[in-house]
């Protein structure tokens, strides 16, 4: 690591480098840039982070991040509330929304079933999905999970759980390569995968 002349500077670099994808050198560049900026800009930056942490929370319906109790998607009457796209995390919602082709709602599991990592159904946001299906007229569940072993295991479990309750269960087409994460898939491929979704079969 490079020479750092100040403990305050070093502490700030340590905090920035804890963020994913940020190494020590990148953290140092970011901190030095912040030091150059005027006090009002730095205060606004710091306040936005503090306010974000204090006030943002998960939507009570789908688990998305929201400023209010219910997120803007679940609160939108123009969305098809009988269609639920099941995803692993919030980044997947952002990726699908950027395609501009999907007009239903979402449900965020908060992970994938992975016995080797000690993650079972009880560790995921599945109970709330069951409640949504039981209390609403859901005509389609779309599995938009990463194309890997954990994603396939989760799809299989959910299909068994809901096949007698939901008329149509589908999954996005395999335009997403096996082993690929949804959030890193380009918008065109993701949009085509959604539009070309197929009925899910666990036979």
Structure explained in plain terms:
- The chain is α/β, with parallel strands linked by helices and 203 residues long.
- It has 2 domains: 7-55, Orthogonal Bundle (Helicase, Ruva Protein, domain 3); 65-199, 3-Layer(aba) Sandwich (Dna Topoisomerase Vi A Subunit, Chain: A, domain 2).
- The chain is built from 7 helices and 7 strands.
- The protein has helices at 7-16, 24-36, 39-55, 90-97, 127-135, 149-162, 187-195; strands spanning 57-58, 65-66, 80-87, 104-108, 140-143, 168-171, 198-199.
- The strands form 2 sheets. It has a 5-stranded mixed sheet with strand order 4-3-5-6-7. A two-stranded antiparallel sheet has the order 1-2.
- Helix 4 links the parallel strand 3 and strand 4 (104-108).
- Helix 1 packs across helix 2.
- The longest helix has 17 residues, at 39-55.
- Residues 176-180 have low confidence and may be disordered.
Order of helices and strands: HHHEEEHEHEHEHE
As a percent range, the share of strand residues is 5-15%
Domain tally: 2
CATH domain class name of the largest domain: Alpha Beta
Total of DSSP H or I helical runs spanning 4+ residues = 7
- Mean pLDDT over all positions: 87
Backbone structural class: alpha/beta
Output the radius of gyration.
Answer: 21 Å
Looking at CATH, which topology of the largest domain would you report?
A: Dna Topoisomerase Vi A Subunit, Chain: A, domain 2
Oligomeric assembly: single chain
Question: Percent of residues in helical segments?
Answer: 25-40%
- Main β-sheet: number of strands, strand sense, barrel status? 5 strands, mixed
Could you tell me the number of beta strands?
7
């Amino acid at each position: 690591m490079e020479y750092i002349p100040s403990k305050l500077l070093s502490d700030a670099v340590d905090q920035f480098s804890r963020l994913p994808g940020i190494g020590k050198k990148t953290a140092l560049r970011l901190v030095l840039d912040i030091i150059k900026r005027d006090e009002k800009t730095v205060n606004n930056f710091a306040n936005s982070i503090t306010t974000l942490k204090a006030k943002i929370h998960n939507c009570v319906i789908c688990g998305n991040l929201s400023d209010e109790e219910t997120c803007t998607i679940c609160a939108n009457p123009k969305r098809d509330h009988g269609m639920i796209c099941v995803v692993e995390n919030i980044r997947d919602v952002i990726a699908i929304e950027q395609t501009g082709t999907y007009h239903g709602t979402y449900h965020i599991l908060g992970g994938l079933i992975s016995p080797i990592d000690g993650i079972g159904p009880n560790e995921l946001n599945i109970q709330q999905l069951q409640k949504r299906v039981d209390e609403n007229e859901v005509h389609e569940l779309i599995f938009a999970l990463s194309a890997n072993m954990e994603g396939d295991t989760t799809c299989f479990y959910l299909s068994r759980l809901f096949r007698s309750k939901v008329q149509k269960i589908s999954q996005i087409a395999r335009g997403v390569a096996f082993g690929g994460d949804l959030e890193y898939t380009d918008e065109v491929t993701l949009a085509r995968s959604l539009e070309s979704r197929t009925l899910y079969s666990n036979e």
